[in-house]
Design brief:
This protein is α/β, with parallel strands linked by helices and about 375 residues long. It contains twelve helices and eleven strands. The strands form three sheets. The chain has a five-stranded mixed β-sheet. A four-stranded mixed β-sheet has the order 2-1-3-4, sandwiched between helices. Strands 8-9 form a two-stranded antiparallel sheet. The longest helix is centred in the first third of the chain and has 21 residues.
């Protein structure tokens, strides 16, 4: 690790500088045009805030790690913007100046650059890769790390990060699918599984998780927060999902069933689901039907933070895993933010008030636009 890494004081300064500004901008500049169906924060502030967030995430995850054989796996859905942020992370950290314009053409051609930039700065030499599978990007990175850790790798840092407010063409395409929130009251949006749901509000942010192999654990003084015991992937009939709520359920269920099989866990053993729950009309219905296929009439309790944080696309999967980690650690399940539950979801145990939790298994999953589905089974250590 380099000596000029962020200190605790520097990290406090970053967040003390940025968080009040972000909070101040959200209520005053909410837009309702197609380009800005999101809580609007000025470009310069957003870029600075996200790059500082990514830097803090990476630094926190690597504290105490002397091993340079750590891989970087980055999941994000908006290549061009995340590349620019990653570029600024490195050059700002070195007190240099980033000439983005000369590299812009390369960003769109080489998706792995964002992960490479972070890996090179921290002098990690075990390889890096970026994954772009829309909302499933972060968990796709987890799956790839999982298989390498069970083969030839000691440690891997998973980062989920997204900055989707720049991708107007992306949001316009999503809006064409009637997936964006269409209301004007952002205090009530997004609202997963509600009868009043109309779509999601785009969120931004980053989350990081350091994974190590069983062999590395035995050699080093680490206390893991949880263990990934199963992963599963599948591909939906992406185009058909616009026409039918149930077009993707079979394949989404397959991803969950594969994760359960690899974990050697029965559906009845899953104690909690940290759900995808974005608040879209088709997405929530498809997710519920998927769970009925896997769990029948015994769907585990469900929570999720999309209603609080917005839908952060590639960052949402790792964020959900971080929430699961805190649930294991604190023994408390936070409630899902919703109201006026649709009768269609009357069979779901949506946690509306905090509950105690002392069980063993949590299921997380992400279902991405374009048909990418990923599930992971976590076990308390």
């Amino acid at each position: 690790m380099r000596k000029n890494q962020f200190t605790e004081q520097r990290k406090r300064e970053i967040f003390e500088k940025n968080l009040p500004n972000v909070a101040a901008f959200i209520p005053e500049q909410v837009k309702t045009t197609i380009q800005d169906k999101i809580a609007f924060i000025p470009k310069r502030l957003r870029t600075s805030f996200l790059q500082d967030t990514i830097m803090c995430v990476v630094h926190n995850c690597l504290i105490g790690m002397s091993n340079k054989e750590t891989a970087i796996y980055l999941g994000h859905s908006n290549y061009n913007e995340i590349h620019r942020v990653a570029d600024k992370v490195v050059f700002n950290a070195k007190n240099g100046k980033s000439n983005i314009s000369k590299r812009k053409y390369m960003y769109s051609m080489v998706p792995s650059i964002a992960a490479n930039i972070v890996s090179q700065y921290f002098e990690l030499n075990e390889g890096s890769a970026s994954f772009g599978s829309a909302c499933a990007s972060g968990l796709t990175a987890v799956v790839n790390a999982y298989y390498r850790l069970n083969n030839d790798l000691d440690s891997a840092l998973i980062i989920g990060a997204d900055m989707n407010q720049e991708g107007i063409h992306v949001l316009s395409g999503i809006n064409a699918l009637n997936a964006l929130y269409s209301g004007k009251d952002y205090e009530k949006a997004p609202i997963p599984f509600s009868a009043a749901r109309t779509g999601f509000v785009a969120g931004e942010g980053a989350a990081g998780i350091l994974f190590v192999s069983e062999a590395y654990l035995k050699k080093n003084d680490f206390t893991p927060l949880f263990k990934v015991v199963g992963v599963g992937q599948s591909t939906c009939q992406a185009l058909a999902e616009r026409k039918s709520i149930y077009a993707g359920t079979k394949f989404q269920a397959v991803a969950i069933q594969r994760a359960l099989k690899l974990a050697n866990v029965n559906p009845e053993q899953i104690n909690l689901i940290v759900c995808h729950g974005t608040g879209t009309l088709v997405g929530d219905s498809t997710e519920a039907e998927t769970l009925r296929i896997v769990f029948g009439n015994n769907i585990p309790p469900m929570t999720g933070l999309q209603g609080n944080l917005g839908h952060s696309f590639g960052a949402s999967g790792p964020m959900n895993m971080c929430i699961a980690s805190e649930i294991f650690k604190r023994g408390v399940i936070p409630p899902i933010r919703t109201y006026d539950i649709d009768e269609e979801f009357s069979d779901l145990d949506l946690i509306r008030k905090s509950r105690e939790f002392s069980r063993e298994y949590i299921l997380c999953y992400s279902f991405g636009f374009g048909g990418a589905n990923v599930s992971v089974v976590l076990k308390k250590c």
